[in-house]
Amino acid sequence: MAKAIDMSIEEIYNLTFGDDDFLYSGYGTGLPPLSEDAAPCHSESSGLNKYFVIIIYSLVFLLSLLGNSLVILVILYNRISRSVTDIYLLNLAIADLLFALSLPIWAASKIKGWLYGTPLCKIVSLLKEVNFYSGILLLACISVDRYLAIVHATRTLTQKRHWVKFVCLGIWGLSLLLSMPIILSREAFKSDDYGFVCYEDLGKNTTTWRLVLRILPQVFGFVLPLLIMLFCYGFTLRTLFEAHMGQKHRAMKVIFAVVLIFLLCWLPYNLVLVADTLMRTHIIEETCGRREEIDQAISVTEVLGFLHSCLNPIIYAFIGQKFRYSFLKILAAHGVVSKEFLARHSKPSVHGSSSGNTSTTL
């Protein structure tokens, strides 16, 4: 009996809470206690009302479903005049649409936890990871296309559309590869602390493996594409300003807006992951308070990242003149609006691009 009672604090903690604080989505920051004599950190509320989050997810789902479907329709309709940028934006819309289909499941899991088994846990986690990586990689490709077209005035690569298709296939393949570590480790199980969850199960060496599985995708799937975009758009902007070509490349404003919105939505989430990684490697001190703050920040910034999937179509509609015209042309072709109404919204002028124009939809 005495032997049974004589348990270390860490053993009691593991028995009660498990090896991690199981957040059913995102990356939890659960680490073992600071020392054998330290009391375990008890998880608090994330500070986000679950019903508020459900409402946000539902609105994002509806807006993303409608908006990205329209983007796909407009780009596919302009088959003959479709540009290289359009092909990248088409794939971006497909990625956002696929991710949006998983939002009702994420929303439902906020109520009673994850009740949908391991296969669906892996699928929705895959959609989330692939959406993020494919998004930033496609934006990086657009930046390279604009850089070659404007700074070097070359059309060699982007005029050959079959090469662009291979690039897009490569992006989807790389996104799947970067997502594999998380997907292979995702499991659905019940935690004493958080109930039914969809989370990583990495065995005993949780901290070490999670550091490796986080750093590699972050470097190749976020940092490097971001550096490519900064380099390409830096030189592109300089060339446009020096040549006083701002009006000729008004569609660049749309592309810059798309990149800016992507960074505003996903950069906070990734910065929080960096802070968590620094805490795990003891570069910054780990305390219960800091761990709880990072957990809350992950919950909030993850919702912001999910919001991104519905924003691109809104940008196209409000800023992209060609997108509005192309959409009205589809409506006119099916008799929804009159040709007179379409004529009053004359087609925007077309100026310079790697494939004749920057984009037929922007």
Automatic annotation (TrEMBL):
Keyword Flavoprotein: no
Family matches, as Pfam families: 7tm_1
Location (main, coarse): membrane
Transmembrane segments: 51-76, 88-107, 132-151, 163-184, 211-233, 254-275
Occurrences of domain G-protein coupled receptors family 1 profile (ranges): 67-316
UniProt keyword list: Cell membrane, Chemotaxis, Disulfide bond, G-protein coupled receptor, Glycoprotein, Membrane, Phosphoprotein, Receptor, Transducer, Transmembrane, Transmembrane helix
Annotated function: Receptor for interleukin-8 which is a powerful neutrophil chemotactic factor. Binding of IL-8 to the receptor causes activation of neutrophils. This response is mediated via a G-protein that activates a phosphatidylinositol-calcium second messenger system. Binds to IL-8 with high affinity. Also binds with high affinity to CXCL3, GRO/MGSA and NAP-2.
Family indicated by similarity: Belongs to the G-protein coupled receptor 1 family.
Quaternary data: Interacts with IL8. Interacts with GNAI2.
PANTHER family associated with the record: C-X-C CHEMOKINE RECEPTOR TYPE 2, CELL ADHESION MOLECULE
Name of the protein in question: C-X-C chemokine receptor type 2
Species: Monodelphis domestica
Source species taxonomy: Eukaryota, Metazoa, Chordata, Craniata, Vertebrata
